[in-house]
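Predict structure. Chain length: 404.
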Amino acid sequence: MSRPEPVGKTVEDLLRECAPQVLGVIARRFGDFASAEDAVQEALLAAARHWPVDGLPDNPRGWLVQTAVRKMTDLIRSEAARRRREDEVSHAPPPGDAVDRDDTLVVLFLCCHPELTPASAIALTLRAVGGLTTAEIANAFLVPEATMTQRITRAKQKLRGAGFAMPGPDEFAARLRSVLHVLYLIFNEGYTSSVGGSLHRTELSGEAIRLTRAVHARLPSDPEVAGLLALMLLTDARRPARTGPNGSLIPLAEQDRSSWDKALIVEGVELIMAAVERGAIGEYQLQASIAAIHDDALRAEDTDWPQILGMYGLLERMTGNPVVSLNRAIAVAMVHGPAEGLKLIDALDERLPGHYRLDAVRAHLHEMSGDVPRAVAHYRAAAARTTSTPEQRYLMDKAARLAR
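Prediction complete.
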């Protein structure tokens, strides 16, 4: 029996919530992740067609499981070599405990398998755990749907034969690191899109936050999981102030801080404070702590740059990441002057060859020091190298204003 309920976003959210849970049931029962993922996608599409018309079923997850089982049966029937498995498993409905079991974390760990490239892991995570269609993912990354289909297909082929279970104790830490890294990349692409005409892709940043909340709910005592979630919340809190009415980029120092999301800031600060108290500090906790310092300043000139510089020093030693070194150079410039920051940037040319941010930061520091011609030249060089239209417009506007 169905009950008519409001549809639209409610159905979409429900499908995304159920997607990894249903995939866990089917993959565990049939032992074939790739085929199970296809079957679940077909079940999700069927639900998207029927639920808005017929109303939500009393047990949405059970409806999706049964539909996916039927889809799996059809897939198995199409392969003669697997008829025996069809007779054994496809006719009987899954037991109640299997339907009720939530394997979201198992699915997420499988999608972030170390055998996959970050690009493949991101695509597979958004489809299998996020519930996005291939077309939606392709649109988010501005690639043809056929290209994204191939990427997801190759990723699933690499996972054929992989056991559907959480990694053992020896492998868990490394796999968790991969999971957090993939979620971090998804959030960053959503918060500052690397290509195209929009600065934000909220469907990606929002999905990264949702999935990270799910991981945190299952691993509430892990300080790095809490650190990553705090980092996302503290960063996303500034999103309302990052763009002007026409979608133009507004840098941090010029943002209207009264429009920042105070609830997200409070939640993020509470998370990072609790995480830091648990012991060893990780890279996401450090990044979240830096974000919290920025969010705590009522005005840009109130920012505690010496504390940020100290944290970037720790983060640089911990990660060896050249982008972290570039951010540390900015902090050095804010504390000790632009000349000192420029010295550090000169050492990054080989580690970040051709990266537009090198020119953008150089331009900013030359502008700080009063060297207008060099600032203009580097702003123009950065604009020529970035693939983000809002960033390109911002950099060209800076160059034009200084040139005048």
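Summary: Strands lie at 2-3, 56-57.
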